[in-house]
Amino acid sequence: MLATISSFLVRQLKHWERILFLAFQNGHDVRGSLGFGADDFLVAIVGSRFSYSGMWIERALILKALAPLLQQFLSVNMHSRLKIGILTDNSSTAYETSIETIAFQVGYPKGIISHITDDEGMNNFLGIADLVIYGSFLEEQSFPTILMQAMSLGKLIVAPDLSMIKKYVDDRVNGYLFPKENVGMLTQALLQAVSNGKLSLFAQRVASIGKAHARNLLASESIEGYAVVLENVIKLPSEFASPRTFEEIPSGLKEQWQWNLQMNNSANTTSNLDEAFSSMAWEEAKKIEMANARRRVEEEELKDRSEQPHGTWEDVYRNVKKADRARNELHERDDRELERTGQPLCIYEPYFGEGTWPFLHQTSLYRGIGLTFRGRRPGFDDIDASSRLPLLTNAYYRDVLGEYGAFFALANRIDRVHKNAWIGFQSWRASARKAALSKKAETAILEAIQARRHGMPFTFGIAVSEALRRMYGVQDDWNSLPQMPSDGDAWAVMQNWVLPTRSFLEFVMFSRMFVDALDAEMYDEHHRSGLCYLSAYKDRHCYSRVLELLVNVWAYHSARRMIYVNPETGAMQEQHKLKSRRGQMWIKWFSYSMLKSMDEDLAEESDADPTNRRWLWPDTGEVFWQGVYERERNMRQQQKERRKQQSKDKIRRIKKRARQKTLGKYIKPLSEDMGGGANNTKTS
């Protein structure tokens, strides 16, 4: 990545130097073609790429500060050799009219100030200018690119003392600075820099120092940024040397770009670098920078304007849980999740952080599993491994296990997240190395699974003995342990393989016990000093290299057929055929009954003696044995009996409840009594 940045800056600098070369070698022609004389003194006024309300006032102040220079450049016929070009992207008529009005009020003769808006014109004028003034007082988040370009061209720059500019420009060392609160100081700086109609010798020396300084202007910040990325975002496997921190990089390498190396590499790839890189690259880079700068400003403004919640953490947590429940009740599932439900296979891609996102697939056949909560992809149904296995919240074990932690997280109550008959894994490093499965290979695997042609692991593509010795409790003097042959066939690497889900759970059962034995053997020394005898240097991913090959040990000695799939063509070929393995496999040691018995023994030990000693195995997945099942069944029975008893007690209390006696009853009178008088009345 640093090489790419350096290569781009080399090309960029070459382009700017080519403009300067043309300006000096053919100065008369270039100036003449642009309508300027050979003796004219050209001043370029540049500024921020953003439009804001105070921009008009700043342009007026800069032009007023330049006015005293007019006297040095007036000829006998009152023709001024001073030419001022205002370089801006604002091509509106209103802006041009306002500039003309300001120039007239300040006292500039007509024809001195020109308004340049097109990119080619701005680049040409900047290439032949004698002096560049940065006329914007707006605080920027980064050093203005237009000033970097001017310094690389050897131009003397004069700029306000903004914080981002002062960070890289020293007053009267590699440029001139003036206080933004006192623009009058700009006039003094210009009168000192310009003498007898040209730059003074001191100003020329300052411009020369600025040109040399511009070659490595942002080198330290860029190298530090990429060093932080390599250290904290990109999780490298154990076969890679751990990158140095920024503090460990020699000062000669982190304070300047290695121009000699880049220029040599560039000379090997192209005979004429100047012809290979045109002004289009600069225009493209400028557009990208402007877009990024606008986006940052908009995000900051929106952040300030948006309503901020003022509730307690309990309220926030309650609202989030409520939204999750509503989502589950509505059964909201994206298209990839729906398509994945009917597939026989799901391939999981473990990844660390945002740096690995470009190497992940986005089709329904694949599903990401993030090993860190903060680095999960938004908008995807990726699995959060740390929430499924709390062990991965421990940074130490997350690093030493590497992508292997995803296996333990998935196997822990797998039926909640994985519904497919087959399960596969593919490392993001396979995509980075262009070794991932092609569409042909994906189709070939799916067809083989549906046709049941193989039914065993597909692979695409030591310290083990000590761990196995401790895992199986073998005596130290027994050297006959499971060995792996060197028969010339292929093995699975980079955790790229496919298994039936049931076989995967059996493999994880074996892996948990192996990792526990490996951790008991190596934890103390590695945790204390960082040294790992599996590597030649300090390695925080100590176990990952051995664990990367463990699936081969298990598949070989458990008598699984091993099918190699060409990741490009999808062609399949069986490796380490069963006939050639006879007499070499330790099937009894790797059988399901043996592993299940060992797993239950460990679970019973953990359940019976929940000691506080450091023991990794209980933290890598479920702890279950027959006693746990019986205890849970008894607890459910007891709860059932308790509820029955509570119901009986409630009914008994209701029956025994004291009732108040009736005070009296209201008797409704008969209708004859109520209307007797009316019925006895005679009519005549």
UniProtKB/TrEMBL annotation:
Biased composition (Basic and acidic residues): 634-649
Domain of life: Eukaryota
InterPro entries attached to this UniProt entry: Glyco_trans_1
A Pfam family it matches: Glycos_transf_1
Biased composition (Basic residues): 650-662
GO molecular function, one term: glycosyltransferase activity
Official protein name in the record: Glycosyl transferase family 1 domain-containing protein
Organism per entry: Ananas comosus var. bracteatus (red pineapple)
